[in-house]
Amino acid sequence: MFFNISNFPTRFRMIECMFCFNNCTVFLSILPQPFYTHTCDYYGRGSRGLSHKQREKFSDTHNMVQHGPRSLVLCGPSGSGKSTLLQRLFAEFPHKFGFSVSHTTRNPRPGEVNGKHYHFITKEAMREAIAHGEFIESAEFCKNLYGTSKAAVQAVMSEGKVCVLDIDVQGVKQVKQTDLNPHYIFVMPPSIEELECRLRDRGTETEESLQKRLDAAREEIEFGNAPGNFDLVVENNSLDKAYASLREFVAREVVKDKVDGESPSASWARPTVHRGMGSFIYQAMSWLGRGRIQ
């Protein structure tokens, strides 16, 4: 009896083995470990269609996946309540989460501290850093640059914490082109009207910038509602209910990955191909044992 599993992508290293079971000889070509190359990322996503800079992001973020727990991305319009939800999350899980402090070229708002709320930087310095590939994602809004540096993410992961990124839709689209593979959460405001009231109450926006934020919010809400873009959409009609929804997801999908005595990188970076293949081999063995393969 000959049973061969050999149609796996060539981007993976294959190991062939042979064993006998119930007088049947079984040949298996199995994948014990993923094999990363410059043309595919850790999860087998091809990068041939990407630019040189995007391929660099594959390589750099691959190392982050290997050596740190899986990140958490929070996205939502300005004024949706992301910061308040994150404050609660960090207060409840102070030793499990770390915030990736973004860079920006805008001026600090009252009460903002450099290095805590943002890394405030000049446009010239930030453009140069972006050109040198030092950022995972970056975007421009109202003539100001925003972005997440690789160093900021690595600093959090080096402490064994879950790195939390607070980024916009442009940033999410860029992160999806990397190998970071975070959990994606979108915070949905109650309505555009409520969002406008919140932004006006801040007193930090000109009428022009406020209208730009509202226009951007409409696009972000459309992206947030599109199936498959996010793992969870939190409707922030009530802060307590919104946090309960966020907390339930975090407890189920994020924090639980760091238990059972397994290192974060081992459990968070394991590709699903292993589970699927393991299940397939187990079923094949079951079929052999029951004489279903004649």
From TrEMBL:
InterPro entries: GK/Ca_channel_bsu, Guanylate_kin-like_dom, Guanylate_kinase, Guanylate_kinase_CS, P-loop_NTPase
Guanylate kinase-like domain ranges (all copies): 69-251
Keywords tagged on the record: ATP-binding, Kinase, Nucleotide-binding, Transferase
Statement: the UniProt record of this protein carries the keyword Kinase: yes
SUPFAM superfamilies documented for this protein: P-loop containing nucleoside triphosphate hydrolases (SSF52540)
NCBIfam families recorded: guanyl_kin (TIGR03263)
Annotated PANTHER family: GUANYLATE KINASE (PTHR23117:SF13), GUANYLATE KINASE-RELATED (PTHR23117)
Protein family membership: Belongs to the guanylate kinase family.
Name this protein carries in UniProt: guanylate kinase
Organism per entry: Zootermopsis nevadensis (Dampwood termite)
